[in-house]
Amino acid sequence: MAKTGDPAALLLPPPSPPPCYGVPASQIGDPYHEPPAYVLLPAYPVRRRRRGACRCCGSFLSASSLFISSILIASAIFFLWPSDPDIQVARLRLDRLRVSPPPNAAIDVSLGLQIRVRNQDFFALDYRSLAVSIGYRGRQLGIVTSDGEHVRARGVSYVDAELELDGIQVLNDAIYLIEDLARGFLPLDTVTEVKGKLRLFFFEVPVQV
Length: 209
Prior knowledge:
Blueprint: H1 7-11, H2 51-80, E1 86-100, E2 106-118, E3 124-136, E4 139-151, E5 156-169, H3 174-183, E6 188-200, E7 203-208
Antiparallel strand pairs: 1-2, 2-5, 3-4, 3-6, 6-7
């Protein structure tokens, strides 16, 4: 041990105190404290819509809607637009024929007619009168009329009528008339006129053909 008056003791540093280790109070955990819980959620990728495809789909739907609407409108016009009835002479019967000799050559004719009226529309037809004009080689011989009748939608009706022609001058056409009678065929021209109305629900459309 060095003495106090020893010169070597003056050169040595004083002895250091023993080391002391400490722990901060904030890091001392509570034994009864539970650590916080965490919930992990999976990450889903976000899908971005393609605007070009949506525009194409929208244009296609608009064009389809316009096409379907046009078809519906055209169908409605076709079914509801009134058309003229189809009128024909179905049968022409010669009931009586009397020829007067010259110089006042004339004929008396009695004809039986059966007129066919076909309604081409999708609603009923009510006609008030039916008139048929009879002609021979460009000359009018007479007119026969008939009362009205009801024809159902897309239906056909037959009307019987009698035509009396008395004292018709045929001097200019005597040769043709004799030839036609010899063949047993009399070419008569007929022009039919009908007046009535088409009935669709509560609507009535006048018709004259």
